[in-house]
Amino acid sequence: MKRTPHLLAIQSHVVFGHAGNSAAVFAMQRTGVNVWPLNTVQFSNHTQYGQWKGEVLPARQICELVDGIAAIGELGNCDAVVSGYLGSPEQGNAILQVVAAVKAANPRALYLCDPVMGHAEKGCVVAPEVTDFLLTHALPQADILCPNQLELNSFTGRTADTLEECVTMAQALLTRGPGMVMVKHLAYREKQPDSFEMLLVTPTGTWHLRRPLLAFPRQPVGVGDLTSGLFMARLLLGDEPVAAFEFTAAAVHEVMLETQACASYELQPVRAQDRIAHPRVRFEATRL
Ligand SMILES: Nc1ncnc2c1ncn2[C@@H]1O[C@H](COP(=O)(O)OP(=O)(O)O)[C@@H](O)[C@H]1O
Ligand SMILES: Cc1ncc(COP(=O)(O)O)c(C=O)c1O
Ligand SMILES: [Mg+2]
């Protein structure tokens, strides 16, 4: 019998709605991965409501919780660490210690970093020191980096007018640590207005993918977290990178379709669960 992969997911938890682990854990489980959720914050709701209650987990607890897993002899069963929304820069350092401990216990384990950065325009609130941590310390340690366009711009210190420039920027990151970069959402000056575009860059090639851009009165949050989580899950399940990329785009699109059909601001992973596991749509990535 094929072994079920295990994935340590270190990102936010919201009591109401779907962002961070609250967007990704169920979806990853639904594809067939055992998820170990470690919540960096427990907030009432995501920060783009403009108000929330709740607390940030003290950074030392991240290490303590993982020490506990090591103490029962299970850390070597961890196949990947995914990190996302951080409540403090100290949590970032703790996550890198955890990544080192996981890799010591299982040298084949992978670290996927979704470098969630604050963005005033979007209303996503993250401490500026977290951004500094991601730019300086997380990038070189990540095996897989999944930025959105704004985050890609921050890593490379520039913006893009063309798809070619986005490709150059993403490829440049391959020389700075990660072995794979998935840009979850491209935004460049010449982009067609009716499409949602993504990019995958590996040492063996570059792939571009388009899916339809759906209309929402208010953009749902947590899409990036869902995207990164599903990509890692499918890689662990044995997909080649391009297959994992195409699957992820399809499964996330299914959630977006359901969310739009319900006229909901919050993502609808529960209603879309069968289509997360078995997407009906398919988007083919084009090799550039
Ligand atoms: N098919 C789609 N149609 C319309 N909007 C989408 C679609 N897929 C994702 N989005 C939106 O695109 C945005 C992606 O956000 P962005 O900040 O670029 O990435 P991330 O979610 O990783 O932070 C989100 O606002 C999300 O709601
Ligand atoms: C608590 C929390 N987690 C995660 C995110 C990241 O969401 P997204 O995947 O849309 O970048 C946000 C964004 O505002 C958030 O407030
Ligand atoms: Mg994001």
TrEMBL record:
Name this protein carries in UniProt: Pyridoxal kinase PdxY
Stored CDD domains: pyridoxal_pyridoxamine_kinase (cd01173)
Assembly with partners or alone: Homodimer.
Gene, per the UniProt record: pdxY
Keyword Magnesium applies: yes
UniProt entry tagged with the keyword Nucleotide-binding: yes
Co-factor requirement: Mg(2+)
Signal peptide: none
Organism (species): Pseudomonas quercus
Positions of ATP binding: D114, E151, K184, R211, P212, L213, L214
Reaction(s) this enzyme catalyzes, per UniProt: pyridoxal + ATP = pyridoxal 5'-phosphate + ADP + H(+)
